[in-house]
Design a protein that fits this description.
The structure is a homohexamer. Chain A is mostly helical. Chain A contains ten helices and no strands.
Chain lengths: 193, 193, 193, 193, 193, 193
């Protein structure tokens, strides 16, 4: 059977890409063992690719008051709300690995209100979903609720920035129908021996 | 009367900023006669600032099958749907100037379906609003409708990328309550003599 | 370029109208310097015209616990929610003039939650929007909230009556596609010298 | 048991009312055998009362391309969508009488799509509900659909005007919690002998 | 005039049915004086018929902390929310009879928030509607609110089970367009002499 | 670490159950290697348990024009729309096994419009989601669309019955917070060797 396309738009060959983009893709391949399709699909537009991953690194990779697990929870919860195949499947895998928990990603993708999380993470995701669906109604009251759970204003910026960045990411992935690599579905589901 | 704050978060002084960001802001000030508040508010996070404006330049400033007026129409229509003060007021000003039309921004912000636009721009905005509100339901049928109005697949990517980028931008501006500069309200409303 | 039509329906000439309607229109023209299009568009149905403006006068012009500025705020906020071109553009102009504030109408039209208003006016608009969108869920609790901001029961009736009357007005203007006069866009934006 | 109040607001005695309003109410009482509560509740504001019933008469009582039964169908369908007790119960009674059909009002109040009506009335109610819920999206296409069912543009104005007037009426009745008279519940349910 | 069909699907004759189903239907006919159409329409699928009425009996007929009137209120409120002709008309009749109140069914079908019910029943219906529309958001807070009105956890299960069972029932009746018998419309409206 | 509870309500011990229910549960345990929690949670109410599983067997287990894979697709798509943890996780496992496809359940749970399914299954799920969310608007047009994809009227009943039954099932599982067994998450993800 032929493999379905990974994007509605043309997908460049790795060799044809500008060297900085090629290097980033090869580094990811080295680390993961495969090239996540979002890299190939977005490389169709090199300038957007560079800005996209620079934003991603700024909100997902730096040190922050949010743990890496919490950041992935925000990605999975908001991307599920936006019904984004690529982001839920791929970041679901990352969340399972970060959290060392094979159940948490499916729980959050389905209904974070019933997931195995505590009140701090519940408040974090309530706010992330408000940013996802109704940012225009955010208010001082939301900030106060988050502060009462120990979040600083910098943490609140981070929650909003992650939910905001995936508002962009989900829309591009849904319109382009970027296909999650098959590898993601199983990642993080088995205990490492 | 004291001026209301321009952001919920700390706003750095221009002098304190990294030199590349300072230069960008001074160049905008030179051109516009004032510093749009979004530059100051986002400069609180230099790495996000750089990625944000790199994305903006990639989707708003390059040559494209969409005219600059059309791109501003997409910004105003989707930002109004998201009820984003900063983006509607500031890009409304840019749209009036680009279109040399003092009415079009208020029309599109209120209800693009009743605005003075033709069928091509109506189809463009219908799709932009779908990306804004329901990207998960975009389909081949949408691509065919847009192609029937003369849009190429590259144009469709551009529409989605602009709607997607302002999905991010609107959310950050709403959560941070970035205040549009007073100057924007009047820009482009009077014929140049 | 030909002027777009001001209504989907036939527009009577002023001369052809019954004398009471003609007089009202000429009085408005005398005061404003132009005839607002809603007068011409609705004059197609004289009996409805008379009832419409009698209602308008009863809820917008009489002495009341709500200031004239506050009444215009309700019109702009609810008409923006209903995406009514005519009412937002024309009453936006009136609001700027009444409030002597060139920014307030665009702020309220876009997102009253982030506008430069105090808690009393915020509570007033929260209730007006509830009447606009979900009057069936209004309750004693809403009355108590409004009373705690100093509104009397008569004031609450007024808020509901204005939101209700523009529920009618917005629907007629949207279906008939009544076009706001170009004059409205600039009114109240410049300080009087 | 004490009778529940008929309005959240003060209800004037008939004797205390201006003579034109008193006469109208007594005429209704003469004809119906009781005073419908909406007359008493709205008489609290005589000027609004006069405008309200003038509008009502203009859209509900005059000769028109819509039959009186069809006009009541529009009232019941839109008032049910707005969950308005007073209007659904009272105009449901009128609809049963006008249509000489004891079933039609409950059918339309519940779900007009499954009611015993033909394609013309279905198209009429589809448009009325669009005016009720989403007038800002009405378009030339809606006019064409209605014309294909034999409606003139004057008929389309009438449908919109009735849906618009009850948008106002429903909101006032819901906020004031105007109580339908017990008499309405049984009216028109039994064949006249 | 020919009678409209009672279902979109084939309707078996009573004689052709398995004996247990035939007996149940004849018993209902004996008691009510007519065969409610839902029995004939669902008998098209005997196994589903048996499970459906077994479920119905389990949640509607057994002894419980909810009175039979309260259970019918839940049916009418949730079925009206789902705009189900058959269930609102038929259970509206049952509710009038159980409550010995000719007004209550129409009130609850239209807008239970404005019906003649007390705070306990209001809390019960608020929860039933949440189960109807948004069960995924139910939480410990809902349980606490219900307990504060005197409902046991078993009562809460019952409310959810009735709202859940009619979520099924309403969907089958709407898709099959099961027609309520004409007899239901008048039942319980007249005082028994 | 203690295991979280499997239901908000009391969970009976298998030994304490009526013999028919005990037998059914032991048979499932024999076949699956564990007792799915829904059996224990619902056994709290034996009569409802019996009716629930009789309904389940009638719509999910009998021969039908829908394949068993297709029936599980309907369950997963509608249960995901209702954000039901138990049903999506458990029936996702069954769907993977029935379809011998480790990807399909996560795809359909996230966004069936972008899943690896053909036009027949797409039409089937479009209708199932309409029954799930808006059954009151189903119409002859839906039947015609389904027939054009080869579905018989009996198949349409089956789609509606499955979507309807899980409308019930999802609501009970969400209110009771029935916890999916950990075993389900991995089932069907690995090729059988």
């Amino acid at each position: 059977m032929t493999q379905p396309p990974i994007s509605r738009f043309p997908v460049p060959s790795i060799e044809s890409l500008p060297s900085d983009i090629k290097e980033r893709i090869l580094a990811v391949q080295e680390k993961s063992g495969f090239v996540p399709n979002v890299f190939l699909a977005l490389a169709y537009r090199p300038d957007e690719f560079r800005a996209f991953f620079a934003y991603n690194d700024a909100v997902m990779e730096k040190d922050s008051g949010l743990s890496k697990t919490e950041r992935e929870m925000i990605v999975v919860a908001t991307s599920a709300t936006n019904q984004c195949h690529y982001c839920v499947i791929s970041h679901g895998a990352v969340l399972r690995i970060r959290a060392k928990n094979p159940l948490i990603a499916d729980q959050i993708a389905n209904n974070y209100r019933k997931a195995d999380i505590g009140p701090r993470q519940r408040a974090m995701l309530d706010f992330a979903i408000k940013v996802c669906l109704n940012a225009q109604a955010t208010s001082t009251q939301d900030f106060e609720t988050l502060r009462s759970h120990g979040f600083s204003d910098d943490d609140i910026w981070d929650i909003a920035a992650i939910a905001g960045f995936f508002a962009l990411s989900n829309r591009m992935a849904s319109v382009a129908e970027i296909r999650p690599n098959d590898e993601f579905y199983m990642m993080g589901r088995m205990p490492k021996s």
